[in-house]
Amino acid sequence: MNKSTFQWPIRVYYEDTDAGGIVYYANYLKFLERARTEWLRSLGIEQDTWLAHRVGFVVRQVQMDLLRPAKFNDELIVTVKVERLGRASIVCHQQVMLQDGTVLCEAVIKAACVHLGEAGTDVRAVPMPAEIIEVLKRAS
Q1: Which DSSP string corresponds to 50-74?
Q2: The predicted structure's pLDDT at residue 3
Q3: Could you tell me the CATH number of the domain that includes residue 10?
Q4: Lower CB density within 10 Å: C or N end of the chain?
Q5: Is 18 a catalytic residue?
Q6: 55: in domain
Q7: Are 94 and 78 in contact (CB under 8 A)?
């Protein structure tokens, strides 16, 4: 992996699985989200700080391919790599893999920058703040 690929470790807990000990498909989305959040945090982008200014990111599109099952107690690596950076959105390629590099899940996630109106109303796409774009450009 090159230096622009972020990695985050995750262990599969019992709560992540179905009765057979296999990770429930929707939980991969949680793993991907956690890795993107930690990636942003590692870059100094604290989402709660921006939320105080009513700026946030929402997932707009997900393409996910489940290749092999993760199981209870597996130690996973979740990656994040910027595929495309736009004025108001970012597209990330992500993988969930075993420690040995076996890819279990691949995903392409598009997130849009939005202004959050009062009480969840008037949510609209806006350009990303320049500070965020600069950090993301340097990281990708």
Answers
A1: HHTTTEEEEEEEEEEEE-S--BTT-
A2: 57
A3: 3.10.129.10
A4: N
A5: yes
A6: yes
A7: yes
pLDDT tens sequence across 84-103: 999 999 999 999 999 999 99
Q: Is residue 1 part of a domain?
A: no
Please, what is the average pLDDT of the chain? 93
Whose structure tokens read 């699985």? 17
Please tell me the total count of domains within the chain. 1
Range of the domain at 129: 6-139
Taking phi over 0 as left and psi of -120 to 50 as alpha, with beta for the rest, 101 belongs to left
What does the block give as tokens for 95? 């993988």
Closest CA to 64 of 106, 23, 22: 106
Catalytic option among 18, 48, 65, 122:
18
